[in-house]
Write a structure and sequence with these properties.
Structural class: mainly alpha
Radius of gyration: 31 Å
Number of strands: 0
Function: The B regulatory subunit might modulate substrate selectivity and catalytic activity, and also might direct the localization of the catalytic enzyme to a particular subcellular compartment.
Protein name: Serine/threonine protein phosphatase 2A regulatory subunit
Distance between the termini: 92 Å
Order of helices and strands: HHHHHHHHHHHHHHHHHHHHHH
Strand content: under 5%
Pfam family, one: B56
Number of helices: 22
InterPro entries: ARM-like, ARM-type_fold, PP2A_B56
GO molecular function, one term: protein phosphatase regulator activity
Length: about 500
């Protein structure tokens, strides 16, 4: 028998670029669920020591359980445990399974920890038995059984909640990593229901052709709505379940992609508030990784119209790691998309948000690493105009991160090959940093980059230096003329302080 269920799932995501599928913890969880009922929980220490010795519930009591949903106020009068599966003949196990499923359609109120303790424990033990039954099933699930399963799952997990998205706290300047996520008090039951759903979907005894009638578009949409849950444990289960549904029910794949796309649109252009964007992107990372080549036009449109605009919201840091992985997957599959992606990053570049600029520079390096010379040449002018601005940033992390691009061998080679176009763009920024940037690390890195260009092409370097000095001289003249004009204006204003006459100042002739 199952002795425990899954433990607490951590809040933070540690998804790496080498793991395109849902996070390692969730996938490991799902793989174990397919192999048996050995997963344990840190929250449940008691095992099912023995079956309850209570008589079967009659037909009248079954009707009470059927489609029942309680908020803790109206519990069926005879909510008692049914016999264990081991205590009935094999011929009666399916009927007992259906009775137990119907029994678990009753939903308890967990806001009051003192109410219905006995009934809640009976339901918990019954759910654990159902998980074990599904895991060890050795015969195809019938349509009637599937129908009852989906009814029970829907009664338990589909609910209306009013989340307070984590992104709200971003506006208040709080450290979201230290913020405790809200935990659903009903998790002792919800967790087992999710485990039951996961094992039902992954079971070889679940015929997708029949199950798709009940795990249909309506079911999928409601499941996607649950991704806005504040409880990270729930989102982790949902991520794994959605991934398994996408893999098993091929007929639902276009619909799932479109539905997630619509959620992204609403998030980007309406609310900028959603708790499950990172989890959606983790699932999509696995899906994108499996796209066949050449890429379909609809997939390219998804990149341009959805993934790239996802850089716009203020709360980008909450899901940037997963988004960057999806973007890089596209470029690695089709190098011609690099120009589109880089121009998209430039379009949404956060010129007034230094922390987001560092994220953009991190992603830019990953994209450039997968970029080939022809695509690089198409976008290098606007790209290095933006990088030049970053080099002169007063925020040392932005300037430092931009200079770190030269530490990447592939990017450095691309720059060297196109130095005649790139050096004139960034030379003024390098010179200003070398002359008076306040941060010593930025100053040192700048000198290294200058030396690299000088050693590579001294003539080009000197030509850029001459041009920079000429431009600086012209700029100095312009500044002096501007100062003279302001000074004359102040003097005239001081003379006419008591007069209401307008003051006309003639600009000096330009040279």
């Amino acid at each position: 028998m199952i002795k425990q269920i899954l433990g607490k799932i951590p809040r933070k995501h540690s998804k790496s670029a080498a793991d395109p599928s849902p996070s390692a913890s969730s996938l490991a969880t799902s793989k174990k669920s397919e192999g048996g009922s050995k997963r344990l929980s840190n929250t449940v220490n008691e095992s099912i020591s023995a079956p309850y010795s209570v008589s079967n519930i009659g037909n009248n009591q079954e009707n009470k359980f059927k489609n029942s949903r309680s908020n803790g106020n109206s519990i069926p009068s005879s909510y008692e445990a049914l016999p264990s599966f081991r205590d009935v003949p094999s011929s009666e196990k399916q009927q007992l399974f259906i009775k137990k499923v119907k029994m678990c359609c009753v939903v308890f109120d967990f806001t009051d920890p003192t109410k219905h303790l006995k009934e809640r424990e009976i339901k918990r033990q019954t759910l654990l038995e159902l998980v074990e039954y599904v895991t060890s099933a050795n015969g195809k699930f019938t349509e009637i059984v599937m129908q009852e399963i989906v009814k029970m799952i829907s009664a338990n997990i589909f609910r209306v909640f009013t989340p307070q998205p984590r992104e709200n706290k971003l506006l208040d300047g709080l450290d979201l990593e230290d913020e405790e996520p809200a935990m659903d008090p009903a998790w002792p039951h919800l967790q087992i229901v999710y485990e039951f759903l996961l094992r039902f979907i992954t079971s070889p005894e679940t015929d997708a052709k029949i199950a798709k009638r009940y795990i249909d578009h309506s079911f999928v949409l409601k499941l996607l709505d649950l991704f806005d849950s504040e409880d990270p444990r729930e989102r982790e289960y949902l991520k794994t379940i959605l991934h398994r549904i996408y893999g098993k029910f091929m007929v639902h794949r276009p619909f799932i992609r479109k539905a997630i796309n619509n959620i992204f649109y609403y998030f980007i252009f309406e609310t900028e508030r959603h708790n499950g964007i990172a989890e959606f992107l983790e699932v999509l990372g696995s899906i994108i990784n499996g796209f066949a080549l050449p890429l379909k036009e609809e997939h390219k449109l998804f990149l341009v119209r959805t993934l790239i605009p996802l850089h716009k919201p203020k709360c980008l840091a909450m899901y940037h790691q997963q988004l960057s992985y999806c973007i890089t997957q596209f470029v690695e599959k089709d190098c011609k998309l690099a120009d589109i992606v880089i121009r998209g990053l430039i379009k949404y570049w956060p010129v007034t948000n230094s922390s987001k600029e560092v994220l953009f520079l991190n992603e830019l390096e990953e994209v450039l690493e997968a970029t080939q010379a022809p695509e690089f040449q198409r976008c290098m002018v606007p790209l290095f105009q933006r990088i030049a601005s970053c080099l002169n940033s007063l925020h040392f992390q932005v300037a430092e991160r931009a200079l770190f691009l030269w530490n990447n061998d592939h990017i450095e080679n691309l720059i060297k090959q196109n130095r005649k176009f790139i050096l004139p763009i960034i030379f003024p920024a390098l010179e200003r940093n070398a002359q008076h940037h306040w941060n010593q690390a930025v100053h040192s890195l700048t000198l290294n980059v200058r030396k690299l260009f000088y050693d590579l092409d001294p003539e080009l370097f000197k030509a850029c230096q001459v041009k920079f000095e000429e431009d600086e001289s012209k700029e100095k003249v312009v500044r002096e003329k501007r100062e003279v004009t302001w000074k004359r204006l102040e003097e005239l204003a001081a003379k006419n302080v008591t007069s209401n006459e307008a003051i006309l100042v003639h600009r000096p002739p330009s040279t």
